[in-house]
């Protein structure tokens, strides 16, 4: 699979973070993750190999509006 940019958006007021993948000039929403495990499942389904190894690689995953690996409600 070609390189894709995964965006983990800011925490939602109700908890969880929207996850999208950007490739081929477009974006696809993968779902609402509530944990690293959810994020890994979404990335596996999107075709990324070894997604657990990509979570802390800023070349692959951009964490927006909050700290990486924080899944709770927005302040």
> Span between N and C termini?
36 Å
Describe the sheet with the most strands: 4 strands, mixed
Strand content: 25-35%
User: How do the strands of the widest beta sheet line up side by side?
Assistant: 3-2-1-4
The whole-angstrom Rg is 11 Å
Individual helix count: 1
H/E topology pattern: EEEHE
The low-pLDDT segments are none
Please state the overall shape, judged from the principal axes of the Cα atoms.
Answer: globular
Strand segment tally: 4
Q: Helical residue percent? A: 10-25%
Summed over residues and divided by their number, the pLDDT gives a mean of: 89
Classification by helices and strands: alpha+beta
Report on this model:
There is one protein chain. With 75 residues, this protein is an alpha+beta fold. Helix content is 13%, strand content 33%. The protein contains one helix and four strands, in the order βββαβ. It has one helix spanning 36-45, and strands at 5-11, 17-23, 26-33, 61-63. The chain has a four-stranded mixed sheet with strand order 3-2-1-4, covered by helices on one side.
């Amino acid at each position: 699979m070609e390189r894709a940019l995964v965006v983990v958006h800011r925490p939602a007021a109700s908890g969880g973070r929207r996850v999208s993948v950007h490739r081929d000039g477009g974006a696809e929403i993968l779902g609402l993750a509530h944990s690293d495990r959810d994020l890994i499942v979404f990335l596996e389904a999107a075709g990324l190999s070894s997604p657990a190894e990509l979570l802390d690689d800023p070349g692959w995953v951009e964490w927006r509006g909050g700290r990486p690996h924080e899944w709770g409600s927005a302040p």
